[in-house]
Amino acid sequence: MTHDLVTALRPLLTAEASAEAHATGAEPGDLEQAVWLRLLEHLDTQGPPLDPHGWLRRAVRSESRRTRRTTRLERPYGAEPADEGAPTPEQLALASARRRALHDAVRRLPGRCPSLLAALLSPRDLTYREIAGELGMSQGSLGPERSRCLGCLRRLLTPEVAARGARG
Predict the structure, then answer these.
(1) Closest CA to 109 of 166, 145, 149, 136
(2) Average pLDDT of the segment spanning 18-45
(3) Which of 66, 110, 146, 158 is the most buried (most CB within 10 A)?
């Protein structure tokens, strides 16, 4: 019974929804879907309509009015546009991978270099005086020691960086 009703009403609903959707600026498929849902609710609570074709026309017009009312009351979201200068998730992931690779390379350095470069890379942004106190060395020896450690780091990273790039 329900299948026969749906089959009989489908062409009429398609035509009615297309005509009403054009007038309201809605999508015909959205109107059709809303009316099918209404029909299912009606069948569930009251059984089949006595005049299915008349009921369908009224339902389409009612859904069309509801859509028009909703559209008139809706307002665009007034938030700030996304910051186009902000890094993308891909850029954040790549930066994180680079930081991990750098910290891994720093840990492989000889002598005091790992602790010195870790202090220089620290998010606490330590001064030379604080670093010297933390490492138990004179503040005057930090500059030359830093240069030596950066040279070691550069030599350590050169083969890794060169191996990743395209050649030829």
Answers:
(1) 149
(2) 87
(3) 146
